[in-house]
Amino acid sequence: MSDTPAILICSHGSRDPRAVEEFGLVAKALGARLPDSKVASGFLEFARPTITESLEALVADGATEIWALPGMLFAAMHMKTDIPAELDAFGKAHPEVALRFGAELGLDWRMMEAAKDRIETALAAADKTFGKVARKDTLLVVVGRGTSDPDANGNIAKVARMLWDVMGFGWVEAGFSGLAHPTADVVMLRELQRDAFRRVVVFPYFLFTGILVDRIYDWADAVADRYPEVQVVTVPYLKDHPRVIETFMERLQDIARDATGSLDRLAQYRAWKQAGEPLEGEPWMKKLFEHEHGHGGCGCGGHGHHHHEEAHDHEHAEGGCCGGHGHAHDDDHECCGGHGHADDDHECCGGHGHAHEHEHEHAHEHGGCGCGGKH
């Protein structure tokens, strides 16, 4: 039996083995910084071991106290209800085990440093290969997953604004590749139609790879083909950047400093459950979100429906790169081009598209600046 808490990093899970491997790198990096603690990882679905399986293994290894952390950028449905529900069920079956659940990575200065470093590194490579482009002539597009939770979606806009404030780009926009609008391809095309940027920097604000990240890079390639005079620079996602690992360590310190347990997300979940269904986001946000959808305010003409188990999104990419009428189901599902439905992790992308490696960093340079003297 160990006197130090065991650590469990929880993720949604993916059928993409690359994402599972990358998540393992995070657990490995944390284990290296916590030599006296047993560090494990677990998934909600699509991959093994499950969260419950990892909890059982830690207890079998002698753990009497387990600190769980969500391996997630922001607090959406999985963080707010799904993972706490798994932990709560395990806690009821194992009352002898002390369980604590910490916070998501969130809007932390360390995460902004990681993002800034990823972008700066990609820009330095592009400058060396294709020549420098002034920041004022550059558009930054920060791309998030996109969920049915307005709280999490709003955080992507905050990330974009904070990066713009410190990096000096000509303009910044936030976009999404999942169940939210505007999608990143629409954002890029719209901004290039409005202004003559010489360079577009596309940054997926994701922890790990998967279909949604591949989709972002494919969109960037399609924009580069459509605007050959514009240099399109794709930036690697966050993965196991040292600052990301530092943020995970800080979330563990938050648990250690919270002697009363007042910040314990599992305790909050249990309180919400006792009082009624947990809310997605702040109460006023939920009311506003429901009001907008009830009166067509979402801009989708009544087509957008977001549910917990079966998130169903009708994507109308007017002027977008994929075109057509696609239906995306669940977190990592995709259907681009024509009219189709994608189930599980299958893709049906017609036309332009190819797979990208873990560290995706390239620029497309096809000619002059095309700025028309505006920048």
TrEMBL record:
Record key words, sorted: Lyase, Metal-binding
Record-level Gene Ontology MF annotations: lyase activity; metal ion binding
Keyword Lyase on entry: yes
Keyword Lyase: yes
Protein known as: Sirohydrochlorin cobaltochelatase
Source organism (scientific name): uncultured Alphaproteobacteria bacterium
